[in-house]
Amino acid sequence: MPDSDPSRLLAQAGPRRGRPPLERWQPPLSGDIDIRIDRDGRWWHEGRPIEREALVQLFAGILRREADGGHYLVTPIEKWRITVEDAPLLAGPPERLDGPAGPRLRFTTSVGDVFDAGPQYPIEVEYRGDEPRPYLHVHHGLRARLTRAAFVELAGLAEPASLGGREVLGVYSDGAFFVLGPAGEGGN
pLDDT tens, position by position, for the chain (188 residues)? Predict the structure, then answer.
């Protein structure tokens, strides 16, 4: 079985200069590696938290989610499956900017990547019972879960709209409208 040493994987990926071309790297599955990202976005290796932020940023740079829903650390020659409890990244409250297509909401993820919500990076809210789970779709099939503070701020920016005969609340960013939830009593 190939060696699943995380530091070796990072050496294969090379130094981080922008986003690596993960879409071009198609190595066969090497196996599972004992790396887990918990619901709070904290990274763990062999049951211990990864404390070095630079290491987390490097791993996040070679992480992708594939069509099977699995999350993989990918280099040009290896691909290792990891465990992700919810979303591998978190996104804090947005910075509100004015752009040519109207307002733009800029989010910064827990690893310092910046994305403007819009057609390329949409906001999606899933509901589990009455609990909203807001996400920002980012690069390589990944999602960043919006923090509670980010979602509260979005709710404060929400505008009513009618979509397909349904009354909803949502936000505009970069010319796109994103539904946060149904309109009505208490916004639910």
Answer: 456 666 655 565 555 557 899 999 999 999 999 999 999 999 999 999 999 999 999 999 999 999 999 999 999 999 999 999 999 999 999 999 997 878 999 999 999 999 999 999 999 999 988 899 999 999 999 999 999 999 999 999 999 999 989 999 999 999 999 999 999 754 44
Locate 139 and state its tokens.
């690069």
Tell me, rounded to whole angstroms, the distance of Cα 89 from its chain centroid. Answer: 5
Select from 135, 136, 118 the least CA-distant residue to 126. 135
Which distant-in-sequence residues (6+ apart) come within 8 Å of 46 by Cβ? 34
Sheet architecture: strand order including 114-116 = 95-99, 102-108, 114-116
- Sequence-ordered strand ranges (E) for the chain: 29-37, 43-45, 48-49, 63-65, 71-74, 79-84, 89-91, 95-99, 102-108, 114-116, 123-128, 131-137, 143-146, 159-163, 166-173, 176-182
The C-alpha atoms of residue 186 and residue 112 are separated, in whole angstroms, by 34
| The model's pTM | 0.86
Q: Are 108 and 91 in contact (CB under 8 A)?
A: yes
Instruction: Classify residue 131 by burial, with Cβ atoms within 10 Å: 0-12, 13-18, 19+.
Output: exposed
